[in-house]
Amino acid sequence: MDELWFQIGITWPQVLGVVGATTVLYLVYAALLELWTQRLQSSTSTLSLALATVTGAVMARAMLGNSPTLLGGLVALLTLAALESGFGFLRTKGVAKRHRRRRPARVVVRQGRVLRAELRAAHIDEHDLDIRLRMAGVRSYAEVALVILESRGSLTVVRDGQTIDAELVEDVRGIAAVPEDIVLRRQS
């Protein structure tokens, strides 16, 4: 019976160790994602996928300590669920609202011209942008009036001849330089 407990059990000091390691790694990973989200979400590179996979594997191993057990894994999962629920609650209450502003949505193409400085600031290369635009059905930069790189890494494409309501883009970096025939500003 002791041998079975050794394989699936965990002691109270080990519980504290798993909870502590899981909490620290969660916070570090959340900070890294805050910095890399636009890049990881918008990148089509296999290396980005491999980085995310390896990071998850390293974190999982580090959370469980020297000898991973079934109960240790459950403690880590419950800790992650509690942390995510707690931070999710704070996000919905607006406490974390200022942190979302760190990586603002930004204009990366305006009237068919790529804004390379904005791509560099988001750590995205033009090749990734080209791939994402093709995936969105864009065949030429000439048919694009506006492309916004969203804070989560997705693209919003406004085609030539289309407009977007100013209320939807008021917090987008670089939107003030977009002509009024693209951004519809309603008269009061």
UniProtKB/TrEMBL annotation:
Coiled coil feature spans: none
Subcellular location: Cell membrane
Membrane topology reported for the UniProt record: Multi-pass membrane protein
Origin species: Mobilicoccus caccae
Keyword hit for Cell membrane: yes
Regions crossing the membrane: 12-33, 45-64, 70-90
Keyword Membrane: yes
UniProt-listed InterPro entries: DUF421, UPF0702_alpha/beta_dom_sf
Keyword vocabulary terms for this entry: Cell membrane, Membrane, Transmembrane, Transmembrane helix
Protein name: DUF421 domain-containing protein
Family statement: Belongs to the UPF0702 family.
Positions of the YetF C-terminal domain: 106-170
Top-rank taxon, per record: Bacteria
